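Section 3.1 - Work completed
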Amino acid sequence: MELSYWHSRWQKDKTGWHMDIIYPQLPRLWPTLSLPKGSRILVPLCGKSIDMKWFIDQGYYVIGVDAIEKALSEFMDTWSEAFSLDSSHGFQIYRSNNIELWQGDFLKLPPTKLGHIDLIYDKAAIIALPKSKRDTYAQKILQLCNIDTQIFIQTFEYEQDEMSGPPFSVSEEELELHYSNHFDLDLLHKQSKFDELAEFQRRGLSSYLKEKVYLLTPCM
């Protein structure tokens, strides 16, 4: 999808993917990661996700990235402290206590300007992209990783021919294609969402819908 598509969705408040609660699997699966307090978490295509607040409440530093000014503004409107404004490499950068928000095209994010990244939290990011853009996205993710960076990824799997994305179907085989040269993939969670997400059935989905969550850890 082009950025104009997402701008249009936000301007029309058609943001059905946004969750007004913490992603339920996040606190349940988090102990698996053993991530020390103070670690730096990168959230690609973050929108106004309140998962970022959860991370900060747990003692982490968050770097959110999104191209949509309205999304980041709505997140900042709920923040209890002021943000300062800076700019770098074509990005507007908003900073507050334990968080910075980069407004701009994620694929143009400068790796050397972010500092050490301990975890990349891919919640509904890779599945927001069509297949033609996912390889470029994965290459950018790899550029942003350090030797010890972990990746937490949520995906959906379904018959792509039955429903047009987003969200798009991303299989484990595709994740392995993108990441297995650098990471070990561990499936943390698998659940049918076919009955729960009836909207997708109205869009044509008729066979199955699986949600999966993976933890990618660097190969030793």
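Second construct:
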Amino acid sequence: MNFQLLLAGNDSLEIKYNLINSFPQNVEIYIDGTYIGNTPFYFMWGDTLFPKNILIRHKRYHDYHDTVYSNERINRYYFLKPRSDGIIYNPVKEYNPDYFSSPRNVLPIALTSVVTASSAVSAYYFKSLAISNRDAYDYHGDMEALSRKRKYDIISGVSLFVFQTSFAVLLYLLFGD
């Protein structure tokens, strides 16, 4: 099948959608007083009665009125003006439910981060010492190396436990609400 023929500009299969978009997005659209959706919105005219009155509405911005006089294809982008308080709201933050309800306290997060990192380094360091003392015991039969290995294994295990606990607390402090 030749795809070039399907993409030709005069093809009868071409569908011409209308587009209404705005800043901010997610704004209500009314055509002749009937709610049709929120921006950005693609649609086709439901009938051939014109003119059509378009109303763009958002609770924190002035309404925008527009009129379409013929069955033309429209591609319109509306910039709404904020109400008289002059504050431009952040539409991403306003409609995003993923923000935390309270701000994070930095000091406990920083302290827990330091404890987490230092305990991880400590666990690695003491486990490395335990391994080197085990090698000394295995190759030379040094009994003092065996007792140092056991001591370093205990310290390494405690450090690993502190790391895991502080990491769990850090995750709670960062993502708990």
